[in-house]
């Protein structure tokens, strides 16, 4: 098992780490680490898990997560990933809070930066025109060296700190209660649900994967995911339905049944509960935003 706490170590010789990712899939493991992380998707789509937040992701998204916030980008891949096929590309930056300098961070000039770091503890999306600006800045950051690279990262953080075009992800008050052993167990559960969400999933079969009784598993999952297992499965199904409605231009009825729901009435009820809109309203809003 990969240790969750040493996922992204920063060498003592560097202020931060930036990587260009070109992979068949993004890292499929649920994990957390002590560094702050900026992640931009350049290619690929799938389902994103951040704390108790579950949502589809797509090209162009920029997400800022704080220390020890569990996260996972699970790519949509049909069949086995092909060797040397890069279907998941992105840019990731890891840094620690003291990268700025503890003394400077406590000064009045850094008040918005402190607020930004606080928001990142729930995970946040950078949206709108700010996202477009930060996208270009991250690409440029890859090409810089030395202290120019440090200054440019500070400009990126300042750009995000000054902007109101951000959306918080995990629930207010969400706390990571997981230990290293929990990440392996949750990975098994998430992988099973992602494979089988279009079918009926019995809690007994998932509890067996976690080596628990159904009652113990239900209690365990609610504590660590901040929601019931059935709520989690519904979020995965609705996320898939959103992609069908938008990317595949599927009609509502077909999206319902291809996402694992048995009745249209339940699908419509769950869709509005999770997205705040009916399926048709969601589709119209997407087209309008485009």
TrEMBL record:
<dbReference type="InterPro" id="IPR014710">
    <property type="entry name" value="RmlC-like_jellyroll"/>
</dbReference>
<dbReference type="InterPro" id="IPR003313">
    <property type="entry name" value="AraC-bd"/>
</dbReference>
<feature type="domain" description="HTH araC/xylS-type">
    <location>
        <begin position="187"/>
        <end position="285"/>
    </location>
</feature>
<protein>
    <submittedName>
        <fullName>Transcriptional regulator, AraC family</fullName>
    </submittedName>
</protein>
<dbReference type="InterPro" id="IPR018062">
    <property type="entry name" value="HTH_AraC-typ_CS"/>
</dbReference>
<dbReference type="GO" id="GO:0043565">
    <property type="term" value="F:sequence-specific DNA binding"/>
</dbReference>
<dbReference type="InterPro" id="IPR018060">
    <property type="entry name" value="HTH_AraC"/>
</dbReference>
<keyword id="KW-0804">Transcription</keyword>
<dbReference type="GO" id="GO:0003700">
    <property type="term" value="F:DNA-binding transcription factor activity"/>
</dbReference>
<keyword id="KW-0238">DNA-binding</keyword>
<dbReference type="InterPro" id="IPR011051">
    <property type="entry name" value="RmlC_Cupin_sf"/>
</dbReference>
<dbReference type="Pfam" id="PF02311">
    <property type="entry name" value="AraC_binding"/>
</dbReference>
<dbReference type="InterPro" id="IPR009057">
    <property type="entry name" value="Homeodomain-like_sf"/>
</dbReference>
<keyword id="KW-0805">Transcription regulation</keyword>
<dbReference type="Pfam" id="PF12833">
    <property type="entry name" value="HTH_18"/>
</dbReference>
